[in-house]
Amino acid sequence: MADRQGPAERVITSARRLLSNVIATGETRLRLAVLELEAERDRMLSLLLLAGAALITFSFALGMLLLMLVVLYWEDHRLLAIGVCAAVLFIITACFAFGAKRIAKRRRLMQSTLSHLEQDRQALGGSRESS
Fold first, then answer.
1. 85 within 8 A of 65, measured Cβ to Cβ
2. What is the mean pLDDT of residues 67-92?
3. Is the pLDDT of residue 128 over 70?
4. Interior CA angle at 85 toward 99 and 62, to 5°?
5. What is the secondary structure of 89-118 as a DSSP string?
6. What CA–CA distance (Å, rounded) separates 41 from 61?
7. Is residue 130 over pLDDT 50?
8. Among 62, 81, 63, 80, which residue's Cα sits nearest to residue 71?
9. Based on C-alpha coordinates, what's the Rg of the chain?
10. Torsion over CA of 78, 81, 83 and 89, rounded to 10 degrees?
11. Is residue 57 within 8 Å of residue 64, measured between CB atoms?
12. What are the φ and ψ backbone dihedral angles of 130, each rounded to 5 degrees?
C-alpha cells in the first residue's frame, strides 16, 4: 500500500511532531536550568567557605591590632583608646553591611535559562512588552 495520508492524518502527524519539538525544547531548557542551579550552588558554597575563613582570620587580626592599641595607650588615654577602637569596629561593620546589601541586589541566578526562554518566546511570535 502507498503511504497516503488524508488531511486529518497529516494534521495529527504535524501536531505530534510539533508537540515532540515543544517537549524536546522544554527538556533542553530544563536541563540548562538544572546545570545553572548546580553551578550556582557550587559557586555559593565555595564563596561562603572562603568568606567565612577570611572573616574569622580578619576578626582575629583586627582584635589583636585593637588590643595592641589599647595596651599601648592604657596609661594615658585608656577610655579614648577603647572608644576609638569601638568606633573603628562600627565603621568597618557598616562598610561590610553596605557591601553585602549591594551584592544581594545583583541578580544572576538562571540568567541564561531566562534569556533562552525569552528567545524561544520571541521565536514563537509572542513577544512580551517590558513594563
1. no
2. 87
3. no
4. 60
5. HHHHHHHHHHHHHHHHH---TTHHHHHHHH
6. 30
7. no
8. 81
9. 30
10. -140
11. no
12. -75, 140
Joined together, the cell numbers standing for residue 121 give 518566546
Judge whether 113 and 33 are in contact, CB under 8 Å: yes
Strand runs (DSSP E) across 9-114, as ranges?
none
Residue with cell 536541563: 31
The answer, as to whether pTM is greater than 0.90, is no
**93-102 pLDDT tens trace:** 899 888 888 8
In angstroms, the Cα distances linking 87 to 66, 83, 84, 100, 119 are 11, 6, 5, 20, 52
pLDDT at 2 over 70: no
Q: Confirm if 37 and 110 have CB atoms less than 8 A apart.
A: yes
Question: Given the C-alpha cell 561562603, which residue does it identify?
Answer: 48
